[in-house]
């Protein structure tokens, strides 16, 4: 029993009879026995594009009752969320075959990762066992190119309930606003050069060029990434621009960047204007399908720092 006297914590009392002062003492009971819970089966995407339904069984015990009361309000919920997040991150990096063949090894690794977090709460996980309920979709081995980015697949499954479209090569497809498409990395077309620019092309070019006065070494230090924007013009043609925040004060311009971009972003000219005018947020645009990302999603979301600089 953990007793608080006028708000101050006392030495743990019990088991047995404990003397409490009415209206002065408050207490909380702590069960030191080993307990267990199950992580409900959830949909996960493996490295090779397979979709799995995976759960886990976890056994834990409290070794420091004072820490368990003082550091976390809802210990069961916090432990369950920690286990589920660790399981998701670990399976994203492995193929279906590795998950099936090395299930015990993965469980042991997860046990260590979870304990690194929960020991600060006075809690220790004694056992964790993965349970692969079903393979909902086989691996997508595509000869036309590398496998899909599994991080984007996982976000699509988490936020859109498993609705996932993909293209195994070729140029990105434009879908309706309520869908989210992941595309494999493909060789990007050269910048569009025609006999004359489309009427709307100067608008997109002007919007991105207007970023140049706001670029700085501090922004380069904060973002440290190179972006390529494939902007779909109202005429249906595509124009390519770049934003390089890797050296100096950064550069922005028309065409492909000098090196390989960290992130390639596909969007319409109208959405680009809404983004730069801060009428649209990068995460909201991504979740609604108006912004399509090829590359590291976390790096793509650093565009928020660029938009803050426009203030």
UniProtKB/TrEMBL annotation:
Pfam family membership, one: SCP2
Record-annotated Band domain positions: 1-155
Gene: STOML1
Family the UniProt entry places it in: Belongs to the band 7/mec-2 family.
Protein name: Stomatin-like protein 1 isoform X1
Source organism per UniProt: Galeopterus variegatus
Taxon lineage: Eukaryota, Metazoa, Chordata, Craniata, Vertebrata
Record-annotated membrane-spanning stretches: none
InterPro entries per record: Band-7_stomatin-like (IPR043202), Band_7 (IPR001107), Band_7/SPFH_dom_sf (IPR036013), SCP2_sterol-bd_dom (IPR003033), SCP2_sterol-bd_dom_sf (IPR036527), Stomatin_HflK_fam (IPR001972)
Gene3D superfamilies noted in UniProt: Band 7 domain (3.30.479.30), SCP2 sterol-binding domain (3.30.1050.10)
């Amino acid at each position: 029993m953990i007793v608080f006297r006028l708000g101050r914590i006392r030495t743990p009392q019990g088991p047995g009879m404990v003397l409490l002062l009415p209206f002065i003492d408050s207490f909380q009971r702590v069960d030191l026995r080993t307990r267990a819970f199950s992580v409900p089966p959830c949909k996960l995407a493996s490295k090779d594009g397979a979709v799995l339904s995976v759960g886990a069984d976890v056994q834990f015990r409290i070794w420091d009752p004072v820490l368990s009361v003082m550091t976390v309000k809802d210990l069961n919920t916090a432990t369950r969320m920690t286990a589920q997040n660790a399981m998701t991150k670990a399976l994203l990096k492995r193929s279906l075959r590795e998950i099936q063949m090395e299930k015990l090894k993965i469980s042991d690794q997860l046990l260590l990762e979870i304990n690194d977090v929960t020991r600060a709460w006075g809690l220790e996980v004694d056992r964790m066992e993965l349970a692969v309920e079903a393979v909902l979709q086989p691996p997508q081995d595509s000869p036309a190119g590398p496998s899909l980015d599994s991080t984007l697949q996982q976000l699509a499954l988490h936020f859109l309930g498993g609705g996932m479209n993909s293209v195994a090569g070729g140029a990105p497809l434009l879908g309706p606003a309520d869908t989210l498409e992941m595309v494999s990395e493909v060789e990007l077309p050269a910048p569009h050069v025609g006999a004359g620019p489309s009427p709307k092309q100067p608008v997109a070019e002007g919007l991105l060029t207007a970023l140049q006065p706001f670029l700085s070494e501090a922004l380069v230090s904060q973002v440290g990434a190179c972006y390529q924007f494939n902007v779909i013009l109202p005429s249906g043609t595509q124009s390519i621009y770049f934003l390089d925040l890797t050296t100096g004060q950064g550069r922005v311009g028309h065409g492909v960047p000098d090196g390989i971009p960290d992130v390639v972003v596909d969007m319409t000219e109208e959405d680009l204007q809404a983004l730069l005018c801060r009428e649209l947020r990068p995460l909201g645009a991504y979740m609604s399908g108006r912004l399509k990302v090829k590359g590291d999603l976390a790096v793509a979301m650093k565009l928020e720092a660029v938009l803050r600089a426009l203030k």
